[in-house]
Specification:
Shape: globular
Number of domains: 2
Number of strands: 11
Structural class: alpha+beta
Radius of gyration: 23 Å
Length: 320
């Protein structure tokens, strides 16, 4: 946290004000160790009680920046700092699109079939985050209470009074890269011969190969255990390249972030189409959560937009 926030918290919990109770060094399952915590003191609760506040009374200003640009980092997994930028017609258009989507979702009928007081249903603000200091890299949508939920929790969502389902673009990254190469996508991207029992590992290595700008010298983080102990990364990468001959020149070019940008453009366009069609949709990167009764119409929009943006036929699956 910024130093100014710490100063404010110290003041609020001081004997002079006494509005917060501070507990230093408490065990925390979220921090993975000790963490200082704050809670409302009786003096604050007494002042708040007449107001009858709820989650709906808290939120960010509508003027909050929703188009975020982040720096380039050598390590793809490293946290990136935000950058200042000059607005252009492009960034203004992106901002207008996001604010239109956010205003639509703020008015949507979204509830939970099971009462979960820890979930703030009013937290629906999305932001679009671009990478590598460029507005044609990344661009995925982040935010919204549903993105922090696991698949089982999302099944308790009610959209327009109906049970929710999640529709996922299948193998979206490979399909987009095939479209960039002008090649037909006619295979299961992760069914690499000889590695049929290591599908999850192949999927992660494929992603790393498209984000890297040089051949991989070692297994990406959290992938080594997905392959036999004797396996070498060069053997895995070689098998992936042989399986994907039509796009072999795209590996180790950093094309992954450009593909992610196309994915994000597809998602924004699909959301705007669903908004016009009266279909409430909650985005989760390359998937959307919609009412079960709207699933067929939403899928049709997703596939149409995907083909328009890539020239490749897409595929949408129901997340189980």
């Amino acid at each position: 946290m910024r130093e100014s926030v710490l100063t404010v918290l110290d003041a609020l919990s001081s004997p002079t004000l006494g509005l917060l109770e501070m507990r230093v060094g408490c065990p925390s399952k979220y921090a993975g160790g000790l963490q200082t915590t704050f809670r409302a003191a009786p003096a604050l609760l007494q002042k708040l009680s007449p107001l009858e506040l709820s989650w709906a009374d808290f939120g960010s200003s509508a003027a909050e920046e929703v188009i975020i640009l982040k720096e380039a980092r050598e390590d793809y997994w490293a946290k990136r700092k935000r950058l200042q930028y000059e607005d252009t017609a492009q960034t203004n258009r992106y901002r207008d699109e996001m604010r239109s989507i956010n205003a639509w979702l703020e008015e949507a009928d979204i509830q939970m079939s099971v009462y979960r007081p820890e979930i703030n249903l009013a937290n629906r603000r999305l932001r679009r985050c671009f990478n590598n200091g460029r507005f044609d890299q990344g661009g995925r949508l982040f935010g919204g209470f549903w993105q922090g939920m696991d698949k089982d929790e999302r099944r308790d969502l009610l959209i327009d009074g109906d049970s929710a389902v999640e529709l996922d673009f299948s193998q979206v990254g490979p399909r987009i890269i095939y479209g960039m190469a002008g090649a037909a996508f006619e295979r299961d991207a992760y069914a690499v011969p000889g590695f049929e029992r290591h599908r999850e590992g192949i999927k992660k290595v494929f992603g790393a190969m498209t984000h890297a700008d040089a051949p991989l010298a070692s297994f990406p983080k959290k992938t080594k255990d997905l392959f036999p102990a004797s396996m070498k990364i060069a053997d895995v990468c070689g098998a992936v390249q042989r399986h994907h001959q039509p796009i072999t020149d795209h590996f180790y070019t950093g094309v992954g972030m450009a593909a992610m940008f196309t994915e994000s453009q597809i998602m924004v366009a699909a959301l705007l189409r669903m908004k016009e069609a009266g279909i409430t949709a909650l985005p989760v990167h390359d998937a959307v959560i919609v009412a079960e009764s709207s699933a067929a119409a939403a899928e049709a929009i997703m596939l149409d937009v995907f083909h328009q943006c890539t020239g490749v036929q897409g595929s949408v699956s129901l997340v189980q």
